[in-house]
Design a protein that fits this description.
The protein is α/β, with parallel strands linked by helices. The chain has 15 helices and 11 strands. Bound molecules: (2S)-2-hydroxybutanedioic acid (LMR). (2S)-2-hydroxybutanedioic acid binds next to loops.
Length: about 350
């Protein structure tokens, strides 16, 4: 057992015995440790703090939410283990990180170009597809509460990335998703899985040469300081599922759980209103430094990127499920049809 794992087990045991204390239970607030890996000023970081405020207010202080940003407590993989062991109660991992839990379907969100717009993405996460995906977590001892947004990703490197051929043999950092691995290989790059907290240093030292992320994640981790070029490719999506330890959640008094549900709904609305704005602001800030060139692809270049990456959708059918990919594509068509008359009226 490594040290981190020992710490997870010990803190789970401490949390458990504290919960058993006779008087402590009557007086002490219920503590929700909410761990995440990004900066407090990102959309996820701000929404976690908003949830804390709303939850503590709605429960009149009977619940205390402790937010731990920037991998302060755990890195990507360890935080999922910690949640299952009960050492933390709440997380919001990116949808690309559920594969190691055995819920591969979440990697559908990583498929290149599967979401033509945010409206379409929302109709998937907020509709029956999103609900059935969250349900799949229950057998892992996890309850899914909400989907949170980040945005569409850009690519970065120390050389301009304009055409698929520019990726040849480039060591690109990815999250732990087989779809992202296939996406980078489709571009001819060499994908390397790294925890989010290790990316800045890996870029700085040349362990990896490039990465993909949202502008808000790049900027708040200062990755742009060690990347000379950012291509606004919007080739894929990054979002989150807010999850809790199921045993903890089911064991809460009903009125508390209801209040927390309400706080989560409100925090989710807030999160979705700030995500795009913050990404736009981060991209503008990166541009403003004058040290990183922000590349916009021509329609011809965009078509080349699509041609290289769209086949990943079909190649990943066996892993993710053909029906799920088809139902997302159907939802895209339905949403596009719903938008069409509105667009025509404008
Ligand atoms: C990443 O690892 O790049 C992201 O998942 C980080 C995050 O939580 O946004």
């Amino acid at each position: 057992m490594n040290l981190r794992r020992v710490l997870v087990v010990v803190s789970a045991a401490v949390a458990f015995s504290a919960a058993l204390g006779p008087n402590a239970a009557a007086q002490a607030p219920i503590v929700i440790k909410f761990s995440h890996v990004v900066a407090p000023e990102t959309p996820k970081g701000q929404a976690a703090l908003r949830f804390k405020l709303l939850a503590e207010r709605a429960t009149g202080g009977r619940v205390k939410v402790e937010v731990y940003p920037n991998s302060q407590l755990y890195k990507d993989k360890e935080e999922l283990e910690a949640l299952q062991l009960g050492a933390v109660q709440m997380l919001a991992p990116s949808l690309a990180k559920f594969g190691p839990l055995g819920v591969k379907e979440f990697e559908a969100f990583d498929l290149p170009y599967i979401f033509p717009s945010k409206a379409m993405l929302n109709s998937v996460t907020e509709g029956p597809i999103g609900r059935s995906l969250l349900k799949k977590l229950e057998s892992k001892g996890i309850t899914g509460l909400a989907f949170w947004d980040n945005g569409f990703k850009v690519m970065s490197a120390n050389k301009p990335l304009r055409r698929p051929a520019d990726f040849k043999d480039l060591r690109m950092r990815i999250q732990s998703s087989n779809v992202l691995d296939a996406q980078m290989r489709a571009l001819g790059a060499s994908p390397q899985v790294l925890a989010f907290s290790d990316v800045y240093q890996a870029l700085q030292t040349g362990v990896v040469e490039g990465t993909e992320n949202t502008p808000s994640n790049l900027y708040t981790q200062k990755m742009n300081e060690v990347q000379k070029y950012v291509t606004v490719s919007n080739h894929g999506y990054l979002g989150y599922a807010v999850i809790v330890n199921k045993k903890f959640w089911d064991g809460l008094p009903t009125d508390i759980r209801r209040a927390l549900d309400g706080a989560m709904q409100e925090a989710t609305v807030y999160e979705k209103t700030i995500a795009q704005r913050d990404n736009d602001a981060a991209l503008a800030a990166i541009r403003k430094t004058g040290k990183t060139e922000v590349i916009t692809l021509t329609p011809q270049e965009q078509a080349e990127w699509r041609a290289a990456m769209v086949p990943v959708q079909r190649a990943m059918q066996t892993r993710i499920g053909k029906d799920l990919i088809l139902s997302i594509n159907r939802e895209a068509a339905r949403e596009a049809a719903a938008q069409a008359p509105t667009a025509a009226r404008r």
